[in-house]
Amino acid sequence: FAYAAHAKAGYTWKNSAIKPRLGFEGNYASGDTTGGKYTRFNNLFGTEHDKYGLMDVSVWSNLIDGSGGISINPENWTASLDYHLLMVANDTDVFGFGGVAGAAGRRDLAGHEIDATVGHTINDYAKLLFGYSLLIPGGFLRDAGITTTSHFGYLQATASF
Prior knowledge:
Blueprint: E1 4-12, E2 21-29, E3 63-72, E4 77-87, E5 109-121, E6 126-137, H1 139-143, E7 150-159
Antiparallel strand pairs: 1-2, 2-3, 3-4, 4-5, 5-6, 6-7
């Protein structure tokens, strides 16, 4: 018996020139136990990118993710700042979190991810996007010896024909 749930709420102020948005999300996906039954949720074909943090350290399995974000969308520009509180649903699941196997006695908090993006539409054919993210390890990762904050930055160009 495996299961997952997703909830999302937000509000956009459309009458403003910069169209600010405030949003919140929650995600849960069951993890496996050692009781002989397979209870880990398996998201077969979905993409995890941008759902649980832009660094792609987690998947929709053995996961509790609470997130909040703000964004603005003035003409030809976008900017957003998002925070993810990442936890494991079952700390003894061998799948663990981010490629780190679970173990008895590990704490549930995997980490905190902060994502910032700025995008610019140059014209109908060209767009630029810059992003920066960091992951601060929580108790689950620190218990496994991962204590260093991870950084991730990128520049993306899109050309449309």
